[in-house]
Amino acid sequence: MSDDKTVLWTAQDAAAATGGQLTGGDAWAATGVSIDSRKVAPGDLFVALRGPNFDGHAFVGAALATGAVAALVDHIPDGLPADAPLLRAPADTLEAMAGMGAVARARCGARFVGVTGSVGKTGTKETLRHVLSAQGPTYATEGSLNNHWGVPLSLARLPADRAYGVFELGMNHAGELGPLSRQVRPDVAIITNVEAAHLEFFAGVEAIADAKAEIFEGLGPNGVAVLNRDNGQFARLKAAAVRHGLSHVWSFGAADDADARLLDCSLHATCSAVTAVIRGERLQYCLSLPGKHWVMNSLAVLLAVKALGADVAAAARALSSLQPVKGRGTRKRIHADQGAFTLIDESYNASPAAMVATLEVLGTIDPGAGGRRIAVLGDMRELGERADALHAALVDPLRAAHVDSVYACGPHMRALFDRLPEAMRGAWTESSVDLAPIVGAAVKGGDVIMVKGSLGSRTGLIVDALAALDTRRESGDKAASRSTNQPQTALQTASPPAQASTTQVSAAQAPRG
To answer: How far apart are CA 415 and CA 146, in angstroms?
Structure first.
């Protein structure tokens, strides 16, 4: 345990929160909580969760050897020394971790925001983290830990001294969001929008709206619901908020009656200039990330800041230094043997609305001399019977963005590829692994390449392969990437170590809509 880390849990406090029994010693104190044996840091409490294919109890010994101060278990695993520091839960370890989360939430005096929506959740959460951190100690969930494992884990990691807490809440089935919201108990709930996502599990967009409205279950009567006034489901969501007893329903958008109203915006390739009115306060600010979707989400952020009682003008100023999250718009200049090109990494996730927004941004970027706009697209998952039609419909946004060439992978992307004009067809393959070397061989100096797809389509492997072409990487990286003279080298390093419980990681971190 590092001396410069805050103690989150003493052994006695963790035992009281879980109702568990301490064995092997009670003098430990945890500065972190982990469910991933590969990422255990010295001072962590390792929680042995059970996944569909792996049991975290099999990795307790490895976690303790890595530096975990103790492990939360539901039984004593075989092969451990008799004095191994364990906290034995009375039943399920997930339930025990949720108990820790409940205690952490109760002892923290912060003001909390919950963020959900079909697209824009993580970006909005990270924007709130950024602007609030300048005004007080702020805690926010890591990455997309937004599901039934990620939310209690994030709560269990919550320091008691925070002034603000920002939690992303996701779902892909009805009935999942309500329990998460009741755990977080936010003071402010944002629904960024409701779009066609996870249609495989819902009858239509209205049903998705009803599922998103479950976030209101965790708000008290004085809570504030922040809704997208321009979204087609606004009236349905507002009615749901009223049914949950909420008297404060605020909206953001371009509509005249929006509480956070967009007056004007100038969209550029790398930023946007915005003029807006936030509940009567006129603001002009620079948003350092490009795209109309970021502009609209910035309105939601500023409205939430207002609801929290924080400084809205200061938050608006902080938007000029916002940085993109990995896999959600990060840009890199790649200096390859065939010339320098721009790589835009949007590989973390995808839905029809997110695809359109990203392509609009691509259309604002001018390629270099002789360069092209190239879209590398992987399947959008969980769209049900409409999947092929929704993929094929991307042809119009691609044309509007003046994309020169499309490279695609996945069975549903075939529907788009077959509809493209012949001149726009780069290549289609079944998988991202097959597509990576094709894109790597086709790229040339001056190109702007945007890579996007659902997490399950693994388009991040293509990003890694293209990044491996960079001749300016550090010498050690260059030696590794050039050992086979193939862009697939980056793909080969993506496999997780054999000793870790990969099911725990994927299930806990897989994003939900």
So the answer is: 31
- Alpha-carbon distances, residue 170 vs 166, 179, 192 (angstroms): 13, 11, 12
Cβ–Cβ < 8 Å for 88, 23: yes
Give the mean pLDDT per block of 10 residues along the chain (513 residues): 73 98 95 95 96 90 97 95 96 97 97 94 95 98 90 97 97 93 98 82 89 96 96 97 96 97 94 97 96 95 98 98 88 93 92 91 91 96 89 96 97 96 96 96 96 92 95 56 35 30 38 59
d(C-alpha 490, C-alpha 343), whole Å: 15
Q: Residue 405 forms beta bridges with which residues?
A: 374
Residues 312/417, Cβ–Cβ less than 8 Å: no
CA distance 420 to 396: 9
> What residue ranges define each of the domains in the chain, with the CATH number in brackets?
9-99 (3.40.1390.10), 108-321 (3.40.1190.10), 330-492 (3.90.190.20)
Cα separations (Å) of 273 from 265, 270, 285, 463? Answer: 5, 11, 6, 29
Whole-prediction pTM: 0.83
Strands annotated E in 381-495: 405-409, 425-429, 448-452
Task: Indicate the DSSP class of residue 56.
Answer: G
41 in Cβ contact with 69 (< 8 Å): no
Work out the burial of residue 315: count CB atoms within 10 Å of its CB; fewer than 13 is exposed, 13-18 middle, 19 or more buried. Answer: buried
**Residue whose C-alpha is closest to residue 119's, from 350, 319, 288, 342:** 350
Determine the length of the chain. Answer: 513
CA angle, 168 as apex, 164 and 174 as ends, to 5°?
Answer: 140
CA–CA distance, 301 with 138 (Å, rounded to integer): 15
For the beta sheet containing 339-346, the strands, ordered from the edge strand earlier in sequence to the opposite edge, are 330-336, 339-346, 448-452, 373-378, 405-409, 425-429
Q: Which three-class secondary structure state does DSSP give residue 411?
A: coil
Q: Cα torsion for 225, 226, 230, 236, to the nearest 10°?
A: -20
